[in-house]
Amino acid sequence: MAHAIRMYETGGPEVLRWEEVAVGDPGPGQVRLRHEAVGLNFADTYFRTGLYPMPLPAGMGVEAAGVVEAIGPDVINVAVGDRVTYTGFLNTLGAYSSERLIAAAPLIRLPDGISCETAAAMTMRGLTSAYLLRRIHAFQPGDTILLHAAAGGVGLIVSQWAKLLGLTVIGTVSNESKAAIARLHGCDHTIDYSREDVAKRVRELTEGTGVNVVFDSVGKDTFNASLDSLRRRGLMVCVGTASGPIPPFNPQLLAMKGSLYLTRPALADYIADPAEKNELAGELFDHVAAGRIRIEINQRYALQDAGQAHCDLEARRTTGSSVLFV
């Protein structure tokens, strides 16, 4: 019998329930997928708390990798026995499961050099890193970025990829052990936000100029410092709200701080076109398979222990990527 994490109300990690589920046969456009590993993402906590609304009851998780067990009518992009990975949003919700039915459209076939565990640890983070560095801004060698949560899953991939593009990376971290991890993965400079003034330190490191782009996944607690770290006409990229939503502000603030640009992108809009998704995934897989980008899986949890995984994630006790094993 298959099992899954389900929730019937929003709240803390205690609302996550481990249950037996019936999977059934795939319908038109669907496959039955046996998971080998499930990705753990901070966005999962947004669904659990209700920050991202969804109809209840519901499954949890939007990213996993495994093997296609059966296909329904009209499925042409994958076949039985294919190893695949996926990520998305509401269209892939339910990844915290040992088996499931899922639409075939979001599935990405894995090359031989990428394991299911690695894929589950990197598909969302890797594709996020891909669009941030390859779509969101026309980076030039020598540009400088400020990267919050530099020792996190996205941070470690962005740092390594940024170095391949010739960028200078300034990363924020919460302690020296995380700073060491960030430096090992390409950060040229680290800032401990628990004891240093981030914007002031950025200005010192850039000789008063500021950075070209900020990637801010923290939100409320770092928003003002991020704006103050940008050079004139720099770009602020809000990619998450780990500390809470950014409060409303007057857009005139952007003009006052140097005619700044601000965007709040979503991965779904960069992988909606299958051709673009495959191009980004192909570039990501090539870098990982060749060893140019290393995927660090630093935490592993049994799927039924998803509640503990959420506790650790929200307490910022994790580094790199985390996976739930089936």
TrEMBL record:
Q: Which NCBIfam families match?
A: PRK10754.1 (NF008024)
List, alphabetically, the InterPro entries matched: ADH-like_C, ADH-like_N, ER, GroES-like_sf, NAD(P)-bd_dom_sf, QOR-like, Quin_OxRdtase/zeta-crystal_CS
Q: Which PANTHER family match?
A: QUINONE OXIDOREDUCTASE PIG3-RELATED, QUINONE OXIDOREDUCTASE-RELATED
Where do the Enoyl reductase (ER) domain residues begin and end? Answer: 11-324
Cited Gene3D superfamilies: Medium-chain alcohol dehydrogenases, catalytic domain, NAD(P)-binding Rossmann-like Domain
What single Pfam family name could you report for this chain, choosing any that match? Answer: ADH_zinc_N
Q: Which Enzyme Commission number(s) are listed?
A: 1.6.5.5
Q: Which domain of life is it from?
A: Bacteria
Keyword Oxidoreductase recorded: yes
Classification via SMART domains: PKS_ER
Q: Name one GO molecular function term.
A: quinone reductase (NADPH) activity
- Which UniProt keywords are given for this protein, alphabetically ordered? NADP, Oxidoreductase
What's this protein's name? Quinone oxidoreductase 1
